[in-house]
Design brief:
The complex is a heterodimer. Chain A is of the alpha+beta class. Helices cover 37% and strands 11% of the residues of chain A. Chain A folds into two domains: 109 residues, Ubiquitin-like (UB roll); 128 residues, Orthogonal Bundle (Fumarate Reductase Iron-sulfur Protein, Chain B, domain 2), CATH 1.10.1060. Chain A starts with a strand and ends with a helix. The model of chain A has no long low-confidence stretch (mean pLDDT 95). The termini of chain B are far apart. The chains are: A alpha+beta, B mainly alpha.
Chain lengths: 247, 241
C-alpha cells in the first residue's frame, strides 16, 4: 500500500510548526501504524533528514504513551484501540493521512507529534492513590467486594492516561481521565476512605492546570481507546458535590 | 468569597444545571398557561389578570430574571474558560464523533438565539403587560389599537396576525428545542444523577420535554395566526369579564 502523509513538524515548544508532506510506499496492510512511522523515519534518516518525533513505548495498548490525532480522530479511525494497535489495512490504499499532535492548552507540543502530558501526572499526584502499608502481599479475599463493583472499578481502571479525552474535547476538559481515576477507587472499600479528599483535590488540580469545563458532549468516550464511559463523570460529579456539601 | 460554586469547574456547572432546571420548569408553566388560549381566550385573560403587577407576580418575575441572568453569565464564564483550555492551535482535520449531538457542541450559539428571542418576546408582551402596570398605566397602543395591560389574548392575536412574527417565534422555539435536547439530560449528568442504564432514558426524556415545549408554544402561535380576525380582536377588546 502507498500513502501520502501530512505530518505536523515543529522543532520545539517555542517554534512555529507547519505541516510537511511525505510519501511512503510498499507498506504491507498488516503493518501497524507506528511501524509505518518507523519505516518513514528510516527513509528520512537515509535521506539525511530529521526523523519525525512521536511518543511510543509498549506498543500493545497498555502504556498510554502513543498519541497522534489521525484524520480527525484521537488514536485514528479504529474503535477502542490505541494508535499502536491500529493497522494500515484500516486506511484506503493511496489515501492521504493527516497526523497532528494532541491539541490542548494543557498539553503543549514539545516536538513534532510529542506533547507534554505531565499535567495528568500532576492530577494523579494530587489524589489518585490510596494510602496503605506496602510490605507483605495482602490476602486477596480479606475484603469481600461485590462482583458488580469490582467490574465497574476495573472498567474505569482500564484508562491508560493517554490524554485522548482532553485532546478530543472541544473544551479541553480532562474530566473523563479524572473521573476514571476517582471512580475506579470510589467503587472499592480501600478507596472509599479517602474518597472525599481525593475528589476535591483532583478536581482542584485539574482546574488549576487549565483544563476546561465538561459540557457533556460525550466526544471523549467516543474517542477513548479504552471506552471509558461518561457514567464515571457522573460519579465524579456525585463524589465531588457530596464532599463539598459535607464541608 | 470563595465557594466551590464560583471557583471549581464542577461547582460552576452545577449552577448551570440548577438554573437551567429552574428555567425549564418555568417554561413548562408558561406553556401550560398559553395552552388555555386554545380553549378559552377569556380564561387566558383571567390568568393574565391574576399575574399582573401583584407582589407575588413581581417576586416571581425578579426570581426568573435572576435565573436567566445567572444561567447566561455562567455560560459565558464557562465558555471563555473552555476556549482558553482548548489552546490557540486548532486541529486541521476534525470529525463529528459517533453519538455526539450537534446541539451539545453548539449550546452557546443556541442559547444566544434563545436570549435574542426572549428580548423580542419581552418587547412584544412583557413591556405591554406587566411593565405597563408597574409604570402605573393600564393600557398601551399596539398596531393602532388601545390594548389593556391585562388583555393578553388580544395582544397575542394582534402580534401573531403578522406572519413574520409567527416565523420569528418558530425559529426561536426551534433553537430552544435543540438547546433542551442536550440541556435537559445534561443537567442530570452534571448533578451526578446518571449512569449507563439511565442515559437512553434521560436522553429520550429530554427529547420528549423539548418536543412538548416546542409543540405547546408553536401550536398557540399558529392557532392565533389562523383564527385572528379584526372582528375577534374587536370582540376581545370590548369584552368585560
Amino acid at each position: 500500500m502507498n500513502f501520502t502523509l501530512k505530518i505536523w513538524r515543529q522543532r520545539d515548544a517555542k517554534s512555529q510548526g507547519a505541516f510537511e508532506t511525505y510519501k511512503v510506499e510498499n507498506i504491507s496492510a498488516d503493518t501497524s501504524f507506528l511501524e509505518m512511522m518507523d519505516i518513514l523515519n528510516n527513509n528520512l534518516i537515509h535521506e539525511g533528514k530529521e526523523p519525525v518525533a512521536f511518543d511510543h513505548d509498549c506498543r500493545e495498548g497498555i502504556c498510554g504513551m502513543c498519541s497522534m490525532h489521525i484524520n480527525g480522530h484521537a488514536h485514528g479511525p479504529s474503535q477502542a484501540v490505541t494508535t499502536c494497535q491500529m493497522y494500515m489495512r484500516k486506511f484506503k490504499d493511496g489515501s492521504t493521512i493527516t497526523i497532528e499532535p494532541w491539541r490542548s492548552a494543557a498539553f503543549p507540543v514539545i516536538r513534532d507529534l510529542v506533547v507534554d502530558r505531565s499535567a495528568y501526572d500532576k492530577i494523579l499526584q494530587a489524589g489518585g492513590f490510596i494510602s496503605v502499608r506496602t510490605n507483605s502481599v495482602p490476602d486477596g479475599n480479606a475484603i469481600p467486594i461485590p462482583k458488580a463493583d469490582a467490574d465497574e472499578s476495573m472498567d474505569a481502571a482500564a484508562c491508560v492516561g493517554c490524554g485522548a479525552c482532553a485532546a478530543t474535547c472541544k473544551n479541553g476538559s480532562a474530566m473523563l481521565f479524572v473521573a476514571a481515576r476517582v471512580s475506579s477507587l470510589a467503587k472499592l472499600p480501600q478507596g472509599k476512605v479517602e474518597g472525599a479528599r481525593r475528589a476535591k483535590s483532583m478536581v482542584a488540580k485539574m482546574d488549576e492546570l487549565g483544563f476546561g469545563n465538561c459540557t457533556n458532549t460525550g466526544a471523549c468516550q467516543a474517542q477513548c481507546p479504552k471506552q471509558v464511559s461518561i457514567a464515571h463523570i457522573a460519579r465524579l460529579n456525585r463524589e465531588f458535590l457530596a464532599a463539598k456539601l459535607q464541608d | 468569597m470563595s465557594c466551590f460554586l464560583t471557583n471549581s469547574s464542577v461547582g460552576k456547572k452545577l449552577v448551570m444545571s440548577i438554573s437551567g432546571c429552574f428555567l425549564v420548569l418555568f417554561i413548562l408553566f408558561h406553556m401550560s398557561m398559553n395552552l388555555t388560549m386554545l380553549f378559552s381566550w377569556q380564561g387566558y385573560n383571567a390568568i393574565c389578570e391574576f399575574l399582573g403587577a401583584n407582589w407575588y407576580a413581581l417576586a416571581g418575575t425578579a426570581l426568573l430574571a435572576a435565573g436567566v441572568l445567572v444561567h447566561f453569565v455562567y455560560a459565558f464564564i464557562l465558555t471563555i474558560d473552555n476556549y482558553r483550555a482548548r489552546g490557540k492551535q486548532r486541529y486541521a482535520v476534525t470529525v463529528q464523533e459517533k453519538g455526539v449531538s450537534w446541539a451539545s457542541k453548539n449550546m452557546l450559539v443556541l442559547g444566544v438565539i434563545v436570549i435574542l428571542g426572549l428580548g423580542l418576546h419581552l418587547v412584544h408582551f412583557w413591556s405591554k403587560m406587566q411593565l405597563v402596570e408597574i409604570m402605573g398605566a393600564h393600557a398601551s397602543v399596539v398596531g393602532g389599537l388601545d390594548v389593556p395591560a391585562t388583555n393578553g389574548a388580544a395582544l397575542m392575536m394582534v402580534t401573531f396576525s403578522k406572519w413574520y412574527n409567527v416565523v420569528l417565534y418558530l425559529v426561536w422555539f426551534a433553537a430552544l428545542w435543540f438547546h433542551l435536547t442536550h440541556g435537559v439530560w445534561s443537567m442530570f449528568q452534571t448533578a451526578g444523577f446518571a449512569n449507563d442504564t439511565w442515559y437512553p432514558r434521560l436522553k429520550c426524556g429530554a427529547n420528549i420535554v423539548a418536543t412538548l415545549i416546542f409543540l405547546g408554544f408553536a401550536v398557540v402561535a399558529v392557532y392565533c395566526y389562523f383564527t385572528s380576525t379584526p372582528q375577534l380582536i374587536e370582540e376581545m377588546l370590548t369584552y368585560v369579564g
